[in-house]
Amino acid sequence: NGSRPWWESAVIYQIYPRSFQDTNDDGIGDLNGITRRLRYLVELGVDAIWISPIFRSPMKDFGYDISDYVDVDPIFGTMADFERLIAEAHAHGIKVILDFVPNHSSDQHAWFVESRASRTSPKRDWYIWRDPAPGGGPPNNWLSEFGGSAWEFDAATGQYYYHAFLNSQPDLNWRNPEVVAAMHDVLRFWARKGVDGFRVDVIWHLIKDRQFRDNPPNQNYHAGRPPNEALVPLYTTDLPEVHDVIATLRRTIDEFPDRLLIGEIYLPVERLVAYYGRNLGGVHLPFNFALLSARWDAKHLQALITEYEGALPKGGWPNWVLGNHDRPRVAGRVGQRQAAVAAMLLLTLRGTPTIYYGDELEMPQVDIPRHRVRDPFERNVPGIGIGRDGCRTPMQWDGTQNAGFSSVDPWLPLSDNWRSNNVANLREDAVSIWNLYRRLLRVRKETPALSLGSYRSYALDGDLLVYYRELDNSKLLIALNLTDQPQVLTFEPGASGKVLVSTGADRDGEATTDSLALRGDEGLVIEL
Ligand code: TEU
Ligand code: CA
C-alpha cells in the first residue's frame, strides 16, 4: 500500500497544549512538554499529533484568537522550541498537524488594529465592516456562536464589524484577495518548517452572504439551547463559494509533498461530504463529528455509519472523531462502562480516527466549579451546560502532585479520577482502558484489513453492533455489546475464528465458533 497517502492508515491524537504537560512551572502546558512526552505517544502507538493553536494570542479564546499567525505564543515557548518539537517528533516517526484559524483573528492583530483605525484605512476591507441599520442598531440579525449579536459597534468610525465568535475575534474578509494571499503565505510559512498538515478551524464559516441578508428563524428552536440556534445560519455558513476558497487552500497545500488538510465542519452528513470538493480538490478529511452527538444504541449507530459510508464521494477517505476540546468527554457521554466499547468502535471503523488526549485514560467530563470557569463561551452563555472547560482538564500522567502535569496549581482543576486513572497506573494494569487503546493501535498497525479494509455492516442483531472489515483474504468481525447485559451473536454456520482483541483483555486468543457470547459492555475483534 505504499502508494496510499500516509494519513489514510494513520491514527491522529489531538493535544490541547495548555493541558498536556507543563515544563516551566506556570500551571500551563507548553511545547517543551509535548516534546518531553513524545516517547509516550510512540508507546501508545499513534502516528500523528494535531496540536490546538500555539500562535501568539491574547488567549481570550485560548489561542483561537490569533494576534500573529507566524509566531509562537510565549506561554507555549519559542520558535526554537517549536522547531525542536518538529525535529524530535519526526525522529520519533510522528507527524505534526497544526491548527490553522483563518476565519477570524484577534482584535489585537496588527491587521485589525489598522483596519479599525479609519474608514479609509488600507486594511479596512480586510475585515467585515457595515453601516448601522437605517433606523440604527446592527446591520442585520446575524448572531454570534458565543451569544448575542454578531455585530460590534465601533464608535470611533461609526460602523459595525462582524464576529461569528467573541467580539475580540473579528472575522476576516475572505472575499478580499489581499487577505487570501496573506493567509496562504501563513500556510507556506509553517509548511516550510516541516509541518505535516493543518486542521482548519471553522472552515465552513469562511464566506458570508454578499448581500448580508437576515438569517431565517429556526422553527425547531426552543429555550435552553444556545441563542445562535434561534436562527438558521443560512447566510453566514456553508455558502457555495466557500468551496472555491477551500480549493485554493488545497492547491497551496499541494505545493508541498504529502501534506494533510483537515476541515472542522459541523454540518449534516449530506452537506459535510461536499467538503471533499469537486474532483476531490477540497480538504482531504472533513472532520466527521457524527459520533459526538450520537445516541448510544446499536440501531442508531449502525444507521449513522451506513449513512456516512453511503454518502462518501468516490475516492473520499472516511474519518471518525470521538472527542475534542469543544464537546463533553466520551466517558461522560456514553458512561464509564461503555468507554472501552467506544474506543473499540473508534479504532475499528473504516477511516482515519482522531483520539482526544486523555480519552485513553477514561478521563471524565469534569464539573468545573463556577469560580474556576475559564471558557469564554460558558461565561457568555452560562447555565445551559455547554461549557468547554470540563473536557480540557490537565492530562493525568502519574500519582504525584498535580498528576505530574505541573509542579504548581494547574490552570484548570484536575478531574477527580486522576489518582487511579493516570498513565503510570493504567500502563501497569493489563486490563486497563489504556492497554486496550495500545492493543487496538498495535493490531490496527499489524492488520491492514483494520486500517484499510472495506466496511460491511452485519444484519443488526438485537443490541449488538456488528460489522466486517475485509481486505484481500483477511476478514475480521467486530462485535460490540452496547448494553450492560450479556448477548449472544449467531453468525455464518460453521464459521470459526480467533479473538484478536477483547475489551477486557481476558479473551484475547480465544477460539470462537458460530455462536458468540458477549458479556455486558464487552467488545471483540475477531479474525475469521
Ligand atoms: O469551534 C467551532 C464550533 O463549531 C464551536 O462553535 C463549537 O460549536 C463550540 O465550541 C461549542 O461546542 C472552533 C474551535 O474548535 C473552538 O474551540 C473555537 O472556540 C471556535 O472554533 C472559534 O475559533
Ligand atoms: Ca508552562
UniProtKB/TrEMBL annotation:
It holds the Pfam family Alpha-amylase. Transmembrane segments: none annotated. One of its GO terms (molecular function) is alpha-amylase activity. The keyword Hydrolase applies. GO terms for biological process: oligosaccharide catabolic process. The keyword Hydrolase applies. Signal peptide: none annotated. Keywords: Glycosidase, Hydrolase. InterPro entries: GH, GH13_cat_dom, Glyco_hydro_b, O16G_dom_2. Residues 14-392 form the Glycosyl hydrolase family 13 catalytic domain. PANTHER family: ALPHA-AMYLASE FAMILY MEMBER, NEUTRAL AND BASIC AMINO ACID TRANSPORT PROTEIN RBAT. Belongs to the glycosyl hydrolase 13 family. This is DUF3459 domain-containing protein. It comes from Bradyrhizobium australiense.
